[in-house]
Design a protein that fits this description.
This protein is α/β, with parallel strands linked by helices. The chain is built from eleven helices and 14 strands. The protein has two domains: about 5-65, Orthogonal Bundle (DNA polymerase, domain 1), CATH 1.10.150.530; about 80-344, Alpha-Beta Barrel (TIM Barrel), CATH 3.20.20. It is about 35% helix and about 20% strand. Helix 1 (about 15-20) packs across helix 2 and helix 6 (about 195-205) packs parallel to helix 9. The longest helix has 15 residues, at about 135-145. The structure holds S-adenosyl-L-homocysteine and iron/sulfur cluster.
Length: about 350
């Protein structure tokens, strides 16, 4: 059997040092290599200050990028969606979202997802596997290579549940944030979870200054369990307790994601319940009109109803904003990622 190829993206300074010392290279070569890996460049051949012999050996014995771009789709609003292939042939999606003052890459943490939320296209795929830290980080590098600059922000809001892939999540955050890595500020990183309570508590204890986003979508257990099976394992009482603990540990404001579904969770009483539930929690509510998925039961509310709901929450004393939809024409909006594109 062949020894597994080493993958450069995902490695830190110490690991690269070890690799190059096995190759019999002087220590400073590892620093040179590290600078190229996360710069990034398309291939090992582009690492111009490494001797040709070393580049050849690295190309034979290591893989630089664990992801390769299969297709890119461009939205009218500048959003780009990438279909990426992994070494084992699995497919994932990554979204690049340009804004005036910043740019955001929305990355996947798993192939598929176990959580089975009824409104989410990824949920209907089922679960295949968690991504490695290298595969997570490489999504940002692939987008950076395509657009020609590093993004300022990263959100773990693509396919999969990040807290169900905890160790690789933490490792990938470390690389994104490291000065030798992508040097993206902790405050520019957002991790979104459907509410995996033990993961939230563990993450809180790491004391990182990132933003935690929690997909709530309903403010009572009965309604929430109807669309999110995780709510049966972790009811709202336990989730809220974990969120208060998270704020106490990190002093960071939590983002509450609430996808508005017409006639299901967008009424006056829903707003009241949400206001009561979130009272006293340091948080900001992000309202997202749901993107209906094929075969799903949920419908987008009228925009007048979205504004009405926003006002109810505001009158209740909550901080609220409505998320502007990006990339819907290329199925790049929230919940539309499926990791599989039909032939056109
Ligand atoms: N698994 C994590 C992160 C990925 S999903 C989570 O669930 O939080 C990113 C966000 O998109 C979540 O808030 C999720 O609830 C939301 N989402 C999923 N499907 C959606 C849809 N069809 N319309 C709007 N938002 C959706
Ligand atoms: Fe998984 Fe998040 Fe989709 Fe739920 S919303 S199925 S947790 S990716």
């Amino acid at each position: 059997m062949m020894t597994p190829m080493r993958v450069l993206v995902g490695q830190g300074p110490e690991e690269l040092k070890r690799l190059l010392s096995e190759f019999g290279e002087p220590g400073y070569r590892a620093d040179q290599l590290l600078k190229w890996v996360y710069r990034p460049v398309p291939s090992i051949d582009d690492m111009s200050n490494l001797p040709a012999g070393l580049r050849d050996r690295l190309s034979r014995e290591a893989v630089y990028h664990p992801c390769s771009v299969v297709t890119v789709r461009h939205s009218r609003d500048g959003t780009r969606k990438y279909l990426l292939a992994l070494a084992d042939g699995e497919l994932i999606e990554t979204v690049f979202i340009p804004e005036t003052q910043r740019s955001t890459v929305c990355i996947s943490s798993q192939v598929g997802c176990k959580m089975g939320c009824s409104f989410c296209a990824t949920g209907s795929l089922g679960f295949v596997r968690g991504l490695t830290a290298g595969e997570i980080v490489d999504q940002v590098l692939q987008a950076a290579l395509d657009v020609g600059s590093r993004p300022s922000n990263v959100v773990y809001m693509g396919m999969g549940e990040p807290l169900d892939n905890y160790d690789e999540l933490i490792r990938s955050i470390g690389i994104l944030n490291a000065p030798w890595g992508l040097n993206i500020g902790m405050r520019q990183i957002t991790v979104s979870t459907c509410g995996v309570v033990p993961g939230i508590r563990k993450l809180g204890r790491e004391g990182l200054a990132l933003t935690l986003a929690v997909s709530l979508h309903a403010a009572d257990d009965d309604k929430r369990s109807r669309i999110m099976p995780i709510a049966r394992a972790y009811p709202l009482a336990r989730l809220m307790e974990a969120l208060h603990e998270y704020v106490a540990n990190t002093k960071r404001r939590i983002t509450i994601e609430y996808a508005l579904m017409a006639g299901f969770n967008d009424g006056r009483q829903d707003a009241q319940r949400l206001t009561d539930l979130l009272k006293g929690l340091l948080c900001h509510v992000n309202l997202i009109p749901v993107n209906p998925i094929p075969g799903g039961l949920q419908q987008k509310p009228e925009s007048s109803q979205v504004v009405r709901f926003e006002n109810w929450l505001r009158q209740g004393g909550l901080e609220v904003s409505i998320r502007r939809e990006r990339g819907a024409d290329i199925e790049a909006a929230c919940g539309q990622l499926r990791g599989q594109w039909e032939e056109i």
